[in-house]
Write a structure and sequence with these properties.
- The chain is of the alpha+beta class and about 130 residues long.
- It has one domain.
- The strands form 2 sheets. It has a 5-stranded mixed β-sheet with strand order 1-8-4-3-2, covered by helices on one side.
- Strand 2 and strand 3 form a beta hairpin.
- Helix 1 crosses helix 2.
């Protein structure tokens, strides 16, 4: 089971939502990270890219998570402005995961989508 960072949450998800759906987020048209939204949090998958430096000013929790992931060497091998995540990690929400990946404020329900282009928001409401 992936190590958990941040607040531990238990989320009731709609029965129609498949928690095994692989979600992705992109930058400049390229997928840079993948994960799953489950009732126990968002699992950010190994080999996802996370921003090495964050422009977040108001979200200290995400900044602490980035520092902790780097301190534990769960993300190394720089690729431009990004670090490559070596292991799966569990985060409190898709928004936290999107902030870690992109390095700025994000709404995970719209940043994460299926390979067919359906946003997480659409998947949760279908």
């Amino acid at each position: 089971m992936p190590e958990h960072f941040g607040k531990k949450v238990s989320k009731v998800l709609p029965e129609s939502y498949n928690q095994k759906t692989l979600l992705q987020t992109s930058f400049n048209g390229s997928v840079i990270a993948t994960g799953h939204w489950t009732s126990e949090g968002f699992v950010l998958k190994a080999n996802s890219l996370i921003k090495n430096h964050s422009t977040l000013k108001s979200n200290s929790g995400t900044l602490r998570t980035l520092d902790e992931v780097k301190r534990r060497l769960y993300a190394i091998d720089k690729e431009g402005d990004y670090l490559i995540l070596k292991v799966d990690i569990r985060l409190s929400s898709p928004s936290t995961a999107a902030r870690l990946v992109h390095g700025n404020d994000r709404n995970g329900k719209f940043d994460w989508s299926s390979s067919l282009g359906e946003s997480l928001s659409q998947l949760l409401n279908s």
